Fold these 3 entries.
Entry 1:
Amino acid sequence: MKYECDMIADLLPLYKDGVCSESSIKVIEDHLAECPSCKDMLSMLSDNMIDEEMIKEREEVIESQSKLFKRKSAVAGSIVAAVFAIPILVCLIVNLVNGSGLGWFFIVLAAMFIPTSLIVVPLMVPKYKMLYTMCSFTFSVILLLGTCCLYTKGNWFLTAASSVFFGLTVAFGPFIVARRPVRAYLGNFKGLILMGAYTLTFATMLLCIGLTVKTPGFFGMAFGISAPLLGVAWIVFLIIRYLPVNGLMKAGAAIAAFTLSMYGASYLMAFLLREPLNPNEVQVTSYPQPIGIVIGLVLGAIFFIIGLLTWKFGGKKNENA
């Protein structure tokens, strides 16, 4: 026989799928006329076997390219890390020569963790790149604040760190809960956990600020203003997330609830801050005007009614269809 059976066996899936060239078809058919084993192989070859072979080859190619990309990423990450080590080494030498201690060295070292977390970490970690990048960036920023606070002998670390952590939680929180493996653990409670994280980090920030400034009456004023507003945010969130109606009805209910809760929050803040309710006296808290409350309730009612009608008649049309 002119051609080996192994070569023909590689071409049989393409021959059965009808994608061979004219010359290849002639070669295969001439070989099949002389080789009973290859002919039997062709008769046993099914479409499922062809698909399985193609899937296997595709997975092998993807795995090979993935390993190549990981190796290149590791090399690139090592090179970038070495470049970042240069200013750290220079600062160490300068500090030792001047005899000024290692304070600036540790500050530069902590500062270099920030670009490292944004550049080197995504190149080095094999999976969950965004999750690890956000977490390492948050850690590096707080580490830099702590190092600077120790070097300057200040007492502002708790205030700065809690404020930065709250801000980064607001910025990174939606992305973190939506990424694997966090998404799998939280399930349908992602929004609830996220709101809880916002509330907890915000309360922690106020607590740390109060412990730092040590101003008399700070906690009463801070939590007196913040607690009602947090309550408003939670009410709107629970309506939008868990009320089992359509979007227009949720919007109407949220607008009405926001209007009423903001009105109540203003008086609650006045009570917690012990502000006078006499309009002739100076007040810090501004109270919603009745016209604003009416407008908010009317607008919420309009949205709710339109949503109710849409849901009612739209549901009937779907049932008739």
Entry 2:
Amino acid sequence: MDYQTALAEEIHACAARLLAEDVGTGDITAQLIPENQWATAKVITREPAVLCGAAWVDEIFRLLDSRVTLRWQAADGDALDVDQYFLELEGPARSLLTGERAALNMLQTLSATATATRRYVDLIEGTGVRLLDTRKTLPGMRLAQKYAVTCGGGHNHRIGLWDAFLIKENHIAACGGIQAAVAQARKVASDLPVEVEVETFEELDQALAAGADIVMLDNFAIEDLHVAVEINGGRATLEASGNVDDSTLRAIADTGVDCISSGALTKDVKSIDLSMRITQTFNV
């Protein structure tokens, strides 16, 4: 299954799960509103953000009530200003209120990942270094958050355990060394990239000698990253990881590594403050 097909299926399944957990057997508070009352509503952001999650919101309201119309004033990946309204909805007032929380939950979470990614991408602008995510995603939201990273200008590392090798410390120990681990990876799936995580210059030499496609430099000091780039000499793609934050990111990028990975993009997210307000009601 290709990525786009998998993402489309995940959007549908996620929307169904969100509605099931929130609505349950029925929205009893929405029943206070007359069935024939319709409304328009606007969604705004209370802080600067990069928008992400429109497809999830579309699917939530499609499943909930096809009579709801959504008019987007911004697209995924667009930068939003404080108090900017970016979505207008119209339809049965009951349905707008029933779907509100499920929709905002996805928007505020995915926009948080996209916003954090954009901030990091801006910090390394001009270096040519690619910013990568990791598998440290919120449970059940792997594809959604990885999509959000791309909306922020970042790039996806492997999606899961099946699409690339990442040989870490415990794999090396269990396999009997870096050379043995890389050799076995070539036998298991010769067409997939092989990445080795290293913590010392000795391990870097071993990974390069074994023919690793990518070497992850784990928690290397800035000066050691410079040395690692010289040792590598362009033989493998170098990925820096660990101790990545606003204060270190640019310095890491300036060492000459090819990419930087950060779990903070997906695991340390702080939801964007969004709000939906009814702007008009009328009977039909």
Entry 3:
Amino acid sequence: MDYITSPTNDKIKMLIKLRDSAKERKYSGKYIVEGVRMVEEIPFRLFSELYLTQTFYDKHVQNDEKLFKLVNKADNNRKVYIVSDAVMNKVSDTKTPQGILATVKMEEKKVENLWGDDIEKPLILILEKIQDPGNMGTIIRSAEGAGVTGILVSYDSVDIYSPKVIRSTMGSIFRENIVVTYDLVRDIKELKKKGIIMYGMHLKGTSMYETDLTGPVGLLIGNEGNGLSKEVSDTADKLLRIPMKGELESLNAASSATIVSYEALRQRDIKVSVDISDMF
């Protein structure tokens, strides 16, 4: 293992750039994750480098079998660095650093990855101009729970690899099939050619409870303040709304995406149960 005590070390400068700059993350093809739980969930094929304090190493590594194996495997590839507490405090994006962070390689995916023979019934979230990191992270995390098979994100949304988004995903960023697009409308049209039915979330839409979401589905989710643009909503085969009581006009993007995704999951689970019962 190498030891780093200076905040002016080139690797530390690189970490700060990765933390602060979406441009640097894109250029290098790497991003940062912090905390023992997130680090343990990194697929090793995406693992780049590991940084931890001596305090963390002495207290945790020997007592955590999974972490011990990861550190030793990384060390064998000369990818482990012990840093001082002061250096960790300088590069961390949190107020109370756990003492461990890693750099991770981005896994570039294209719109073609959103369909295929291995995806029987696509359930795709399509996100336009989502700006809040917490919303984006929550959407990615809840998407995994709802069985979403892919997420298409417009390039002008918040960077999915920013530290706040990564932290909010709680590890789902490693498992969800996420594609960032520079031409959202074009790629929506490509998905439609593959037989995916597009549903736009809109206040003037039909109740989602009255709509069959068991087939190949794309769910269009718009910007927190303005919803879907006309250009994107015009690509929808049908507009949907979430029925609400009281005086609420709308829910935020993360809530809307979560609710409609889980409604699709509910319908699909019911359909599977019915199909199985028909066999007996």
